[in-house]
Each structure stands twice: as structure tokens, then as C-alpha cells.
Amino acid sequence: MFFLIVFVVFTLLHLYLWKRLVRDTARSRRARVAGATAVVGLAVLAVASLVLPRFIGIEAGRWLAWPGYLWIALMFYMFVALLVLEVPRLVLRLRDRGKPVDESRRLFLARGAAVVAGVAAPTVVGAGMVSALSAPEVKRLTVPIRRLDPAFAGFRIAVVSDIHLGPILGRAHTERLVRMINETEPDLVAMVGDLADGTVAELGHAAEPLRDLVSREGTFFVTGNHEYYSGHEQWITELDRLGLHYLRNSRTQITRGGASFDLAGVTDVTGESFDDGPDFGAALRDRDSAKPVVLLAHQPVQVESAARAGVDLQLSGHTHGGQLYPFHHIVSLQQPGVSGLSKVDDTWLYVTNGAGFWGPPVRVGAPPDITVLELDD
């Protein structure tokens, strides 16, 4: 179903680009044939870059990933630019309704729109590549937690998510993240899903630097949706081997002196299709309700169940902050939080933009981040 939807959407987008950039701007048959051939070839490349790495492997997939993913981003922003330019076209069409069509003006306007889209899209994508491939921003926030013992005031949790090791991001990306997290000197590291887009055999080497994460209480993680596409059991075993602690619908106590709070984690909602769905009852059963609980859950939408269960703070990722503006408007229709700190009933929800990217190595309006949350009583 996913591949079918991708195919249909890409087909419609490329048909629109062909109409506006080729049919409306080219006069000669030779130019139209050349333009149509280029559009078809780019459409095939875009679909292949998303589909074929699953079958040919990460190494071979790299040859498709860079040109294919970049074209996807360029295609999207060319579409957005042309769509915006439909407004003045419509105004002119309504104004001139009933008058003879001026073919020379029509051609001039069509070519002008193509030039604007052809300049705007690469400019936006270029800036977005710089953002996506640069070091993540380190954000720092303070979150007030009810019932938090004063012994934990100032307790620092480094939150990282959506690392997305794959055809483009590899070991060097992980090493940089580990170095940056360690420099914040956290008390605890929380990884909230989507580590890799490939198997342990393909990307285990790229994930190895995670063993060098340093914090007083250790590193804890939960699964994201992409773990289930990449062999979640293998990745759970591998991360355990690297010294990370998996919270599979379970919890542990974080103690300091005689005080403590609960750290819990649930699997991603995608796990329901793999007989590994989230179970808030198992994660929070029989806990001391006089103590606060911090929950790791990949998708922000899981906060609805967390709020009903009395969770104080949920840490999530998944949204990438929208990754490509204006996608955050679409993401907000599904998720109660897209980026940053918000509140659902009495439960704080923090959503990180993530430290990597999925698909195009481009971020527009949603720079990558690592967040250090400081708990306060």
C-alpha cells in the first residue's frame, strides 16, 4: 500500500511538472519530447531511490539515494513554487475572460513561472541541505515536574531521536552525535526511536559508537516505527550488546539517595502489526503514584494514553519537526505535538526534531536537534 501511494503521488506530481515546465513552455516537438523523457526518467529515479534499497541493500542503494532524494526535494519545492504562482495566473485568466487568448503573453508567463520555480527550488533545497547535514542544535529546556523530589532538581535528560542511519548517514554521523551528547554531561540519555533504515548487518558498524555514550544513569531506548521496518528484534539485541537499556512496555526506577522517579517506555504503535504493540498497563502497572513518571514513546500521538495513565512527562520524536516546510501543517493534523514542549491535560509532551532525516538530506524550517531537558520540582 505504501509503495502504491508513493507511485500514485509521484505520478501526479510529475504530470503537473511536465505540464507547467514542458508542455506550457516548449514550442517545438523535439523540446517537448526531450522534456517529457527527462520528467519520466526523474520520476523513475525518485521511486527507485525509495523502493530499491530495500532489495539491493544499503551500499548499492547509496548510488540511488543522493540523486533520487535530492530530486524528490527539488520536485517538491518546484511544485510548491508553481502552485503559489497559480494564483496570479488565475487572476489574469479571470480578468481576461472572454477576450482572445494572447499566445505570446501566455508563453511569456509560462516561461517566467518556470524560471522562478527553477531558481527558487534549488535555493531552498541548497539551504535545507546545509541545515540537515550540519551539526544538530543543542537545545536546553527546564520542565517542572509535579511530585519531583528536590534531590532531582536539575536532573538532565539528553533526548535524541530519528537518527536514521542509512544510505546517506553513517558512522561519522553517530560519532558526532555521541560526542555532542557526552559534552552536555547528562544524567541520563533517552533515545526515542528510528535509529536506522536498514538491518544490523548493513548498519551495525555505523551504530557502534553508541557504546561510547556516557551518563550517570545510562542510556535507555524504545522502538520507533522504522525499527519494525528494519528488523526490530535484531536491533534490540544489538543495542543491548552496545550497553543500552531497552524499555519494552516496562519501567525502571531512577534513584538518587533515598529519592526516586519512574522511567518507563512503550513500543511504537507500528509494533501492533508485529505483535509488539504498546502496552501502557504493563509499563505502569503497580507503580507508586506518589512518584513522578517520565515516559519514552516514539510518537507524540501516544500522549493521549499517557495522559490518561497519569504520566508527568512524555519524550517523543517521529515528526522531524515537519522536516520540509510546510509539511508541519500536515503532521499537526495527525500528531498533538510537532516540535518543542506542550501540554496535554496534566502531561508535559516534548517532541524533538530529531538528529537525522528521512529521505532527502534536506531540512527546511526544522533544523536537527539534540535536547537537554532539566527537571525542576
Provide a brief overview of the structure.
This protein has 377 residues and is an alpha/beta fold. It contains twelve helices and twelve strands.
Topology of helices and strands:
Elements: H1 2-23, H2 29-51, H3 53-56, H4 58-95, H5 103-133, E1 137-144, E2 156-160, H6 171-183, E3 188-191, H7 200-207, E4 219-221, H8 225-229, H9 232-241, E5 245-246, E6 250-256, E7 259-265, H10 280-284, E8 293-296, H11 303-308, E9 313-316, H12 327-331, E10 340-344, E11 347-351, E12 369-376
Parallel strand pairs: 1-12, 2-3, 3-4, 4-5, 7-8, 8-9, 9-11
Antiparallel strand pairs: 2-12, 6-7, 10-11
**Count of domains:** 2
Question: What is the helical fraction, as a range of percent?
Answer: 40-55%
What is the makeup of the main sheet? 6 strands, mixed
- The CATH homology group name of the largest domain: Metallo-dependent phosphatases
CATH class of the largest domain: Alpha Beta
Radius of gyration: 24 Å
CATH architecture of the largest domain: 4-Layer Sandwich
Shape: elongated
Number of strand elements: 12
| Sequence of strands across the biggest β-sheet | 1-12-2-3-4-5
Q: What's the end-to-end separation, in Å?
A: 47 Å
